[in-house]
Amino acid sequence: MKEERLYQILVSPHVSEKASAMADESRHVAFVVRPDATKTEIRAAVEKLFSVEVEAVQVVNMRGKMKRFGKTPGKRNNWKKAYVQLKPGHDIDFVGT
Known about the structure:
Blueprint: H1 3-9, E1 10-13, H2 17-26, E2 28-33, H3 39-50, E3 54-62, E4 66-69, E5 72-75, E6 79-86
Antiparallel strand pairs: 1-2, 2-6, 3-6, 4-5
């Protein structure tokens, strides 16, 4: 895998109530990733960028919701979410405290 590709795989951390509950109880971290990313690429990107060891990766394709924009109906973009489980003793601190 090219190093440039690894830097583009992770779009952002996904912060939600469910994601923070999973992080507290089972060492899972949620990320928004590129739609064409694979599990092996996600694993390599997280290990390289955050210097942690990854135990497992689960991927979910999220469908965009149908919404109305004024009078016209529209659709939000589809996106992909990855749940990354870290090995015991490893942690990712996004806040920096």
